[in-house]
Amino acid sequence: xxxxxxxxxxxxxxxxxxxxxxxxxxxxxxxxxxxxxxxxxxxxxxxxxxxxxxxxxxxxxxxxxxxxxxxxxxxxxxxxxxxxxxxxxxxxxxxxxxxxxxxxxxxxxxxxxxxxxxxxxxxxxxxxxxxxxxxxx
Length: 137
What we know:
One of its GO terms (molecular function) is zinc ion binding. Pfam families: SWIM. It comes from Chitinophaga niabensis. This protein is α+β, with helices and mostly antiparallel strands. It has two domains: 85 residues, no CATH class; 28 residues, no CATH class. It contains five helices and four strands. It has a four-stranded antiparallel sheet, with helices on one face. α1 crosses α2 and α4 crosses α5. The longest helix is centred in the C-terminal third of the chain and has 14 residues. The mean pLDDT is 85.
């Protein structure tokens, strides 16, 4: 598993939760303590410490102080996204263009339903008139 393809090796539910942690800015104090040895804290229901060891791009080891027994818990996944983002491997435009349309629509609907600011930006940009009740988020 590498920092570039970890999404293919982690359960979908953990990916979604980890991406949410990363997207909300819950990954803190991300630091490469020594070459390839990354450490961060992540704020969830509690604050957990995550350690990730990379050799070049390969993920050699991961650990998290949370009680979850999965190898790649949502906290580890959030930090993997943060490392990937910091290394410049995530190109926002390429990422958006690579997402299947139906999946992108689901994402927009879910986030518009849960995040008022996101919904307001979409409405301000795309709404040309009043929305009917069934079309409103």
